[in-house]
Amino acid sequence: MISLLKRWFDGDVGYSFRTSPVAIAAAVVGFFCVFCAIFAPWLAPHNPYDLSTLELSDARLPPAWMADGSTKYLLGTDEQGRDIVSTLMYGARISLVVGIASVILSMIVGVTLGLIAGFRGGWIDAFLMRLCDVMLSFPAILIALLIAGVGRALFPDAHNTVAFGVLILAIALTKWVDYARTVRGSTLVERNKEYVQAARVTGVSPLRIMRKHVLPNVLGPVFVISTIQVATAIITEATLSFLGVGVPPTSPSLGTLISNGNQFLYSGEWWMTVFPGITLVLIALSVNLLGDWLRDALNPRLR
Fold first, then answer.
1. CA-to-CA distance for 229 and 149, rounded, in angstroms?
2. Helix (H, G, I), strand (E, B) or coil at 121
3. pTM for the full model?
């Protein structure tokens, strides 16, 4: 593992990363957010969802540097007396899980369908591409909102696991088209190359050709798209949660925190919505910047 990391660090991609201050800064910010989210139960100063530890007398306290603020709560508290720092850690945890899981699911579906469409061609290719055109004709947020709303209506008392599954599915079904169209275009180029023709002549099955020969050569753009779409998926999840059809209220994400804090924004308790908003922006911006760097690093024309 160490030798693999050293080889990557000494290669072209590693050199591109070392010489890009923007990529390094984005990686540091992203790593910090992910680290705090993963280890929230151990790093958070309070457990915001343990009702026995909440003090209603500490509700709506401003940040520590403001008048009436308390050093016990660095960024203040919300309407229930929960520590904002702790809720940000737990909220980012949920947003990252939903965003990454939805991207993985959409990547699996999109890469599979794009690979089949590009390699097989014919009516399969035509059908899948027309399906992509239909999906692209609708705004992604409306499709996700429709699926999440229908899922919430069909399972009003569902367990949190089912609710999370519906939300992940709703986001994934709006993202697979980008993978399918990209992989299909790359596969159309790869399937006519000599190594694919040689594999066909030697009697290798089409499924094995697609899996062992074509797929590894079309994954470069997929990694770039998936990196950028993590940020998009997190923002989509926050939007759905803000509208009330996202994660369950008992497991609030950054979108839910922003929605709850928005009710107190005009009464002067700005920290309830501003700090979750800043956290969301930092996560999305760092992931987008890393995606832009990865796109340039993997483009041989820019080396």
1. 22
2. coil
3. 0.85
Residue 154 binned pLDDT confidence (cut-offs 50, 70, 90)? low
Whole-number Å distance between alpha carbons of 148 and 245: 6
CATH number at residue 71: 1.10.3720.10
For residues 208 and 70, the answer to whether their CB atoms sit within 8 Å is no
CA nearest to 149, candidates 232, 236, 242, 246: 246
**Which of 159-173, 175-189, 217-231, 254-268 has the weakest average pLDDT?**
159-173
Task: Look up residue 77 and give its DSSP letter.
Answer: B
Query: Are 187 and 218 contacting, i.e. CB atoms less than 8 angstroms apart?
Result: yes
Tell me if 56 is assigned to some domain: no
Domain range for 204 is 37-50+62-302
How many structural domains does the chain have?
A: 1
274: DSSP letter:
H
What tokens appear for 228 in the block? 């950028």
Spatial contact of 224 and 298, defined as CB atoms under 8 Å apart: yes
Residue 166 CB: number of other CB atoms within 10 A?
21
